[in-house]
Design a protein that fits this description.
The complex is a heterodimer.
Chain A: H1 5-16, H2 20-29, H3 36-43, H4 55-71
Helix pairs in contact in A: 1-4, 2-4
Chain B: H1 6-9, H2 12-28, E1 34-41, E2 44-50, H3 53-65, H4 69-76, E3 80-82, H5 96-104, E4 109-118, E5 121-130, H6 138-192, H7 196-210, H8 214-228
Antiparallel strand pairs in B: 1-2, 1-5, 3-4, 4-5
The chains are: A mainly alpha, B alpha+beta.
Chain lengths: ~80, ~240
């Protein structure tokens, strides 16, 4: 069984060396609307019916992590919803 | 922890406050002949204030050797006293590189007091050097502790201020990015008759394809459209 979407994001965040605050700020800068606690809860597998349940929020978070990776020389390693 | 960047150490107000602490220590701690403050700075150490060249020189010998009474106080969170001669807190003789510099400077004893932000978190050290042979007694240690507490508050507040300023700048940049991306999505929605999420997808795919920041692509789009309409980008 493939990992749940939120697990993919959480491992990527951790691998990228981003804190939750880093991720939330980047997500908000891309246009994300959920508050930090909601994003954190989603990544930790709680409250999945809020952020991330929504396809757009998943992609915003994935893109926020991808741009962090781009800064480190990787090219968008985190899959988007339509690639899952 | 946020490091003390150049901005902090250049800060006149902080510098003056810490300078008062070292001057006060020089007067208030009996055997003191030179005093300095070491600050933990982005994983390294530096002397932010000192009353004499000797203090700075002995501090720097410790940073270079990455060990010594000041760093020991900083790392352990406990006061460290040493006279380099076998009397003190049991650290004597462990720092030959520091001892050599101290002897060169005529300094015979040191008392380093950690500047504690929390019981297990030192953000700096107050270093008191003495040329006299008697070392530091109980009174001197207690006075140094009180001054160390004061310096820790000054330094801790400065760090909190830097943290808040840094966050403020990050938020400002994030909001600016959010706004330009919002404008770009509006343009795409109008052109393609699509939804907001679809507009984001278009930008996101372009960002991935070109391996460039989505924000930069959004800005280019907005600037291009503004130019074509004869307007000026941004207020």
């Amino acid at each position: 069984m493939s990992p749940a979407a939120h697990q993919i994001l959480e491992s990527a965040r951790s691998l990228a060396g981003m804190t939750f605050d880093d991720l939330w700020l980047a997500y908000m800068a891309l246009g994300g609307n959920c508050p930090p606690r909601t994003v954190r809860a989603y990544l930790q597998g709680r409250g999945a019916d809020e952020a991330g349940h929504d396809r757009a929020d998943y992609d915003l978070l994935a893109h926020a992590i991808n741009e962090w990776f781009v800064d480190q020389g990787s090219n968008h390693p985190v899959p988007y919803r339509d690639e899952l | 922890m946020l490091g003390l960047g150049g901005a902090v150490l250049d800060d006149d107000a902080l510098d003056k406050l810490l300078q008062k602490v070292v001057l006060l220590a020089l007067r208030a701690v009996g055997p003191a002949d030179a005093v300095s403050i070491t600050v933990a700075d982005n994983g390294g150490y530096r002397t932010s204030n000192s009353t004499a060249e000797a203090a700075l020189a002995i501090d720097e010998a410790q940073y270079e050797g990455n060990d010594g009474p000041c760093l020991q106080a900083l790392r352990s969170g406990r006061q460290v006293a040493s006279d380099w001669n076998g009397n003190g807190d049991g650290h004597e003789g462990r720092w030959p590189h520091v001892r050599a510099k101290a002897e060169e400077m005529g300094v015979s004893a040191v008392l380093s007091t950690p500047l504690l932000q929390a019981p297990d978190q030192a953000i700096g050290a107050l270093n008191i050097y003495s040329r006299g042979g008697d070392g530091f007694g109980e009174d001197a240690r207690r006075t140094a502790e009180l001054l160390g507490e004061h310096a820790a508050i000054v330094l801790g507040n400065a760090l909190a201020l830097i943290g808040a300023t840094h966050l403020n700048e990050q938020l400002r940049a994030a909001l600016a990015s959010r706004e330009i991306i919002g404008e770009a999505k509006g343009i795409i929605m109008e052109r393609q008759s699509c939804t907001r999420d679809e507009a984001f997808d278009i930008l996101r795919r372009a960002s991935q394809r070109e391996n460039r920041k989505l924000r930069d692509l959004a800005e280019e789009l907005v600037v291009r459209v503004e130019a074509r309409r004869g307007g000026h980008p941004g207020p």
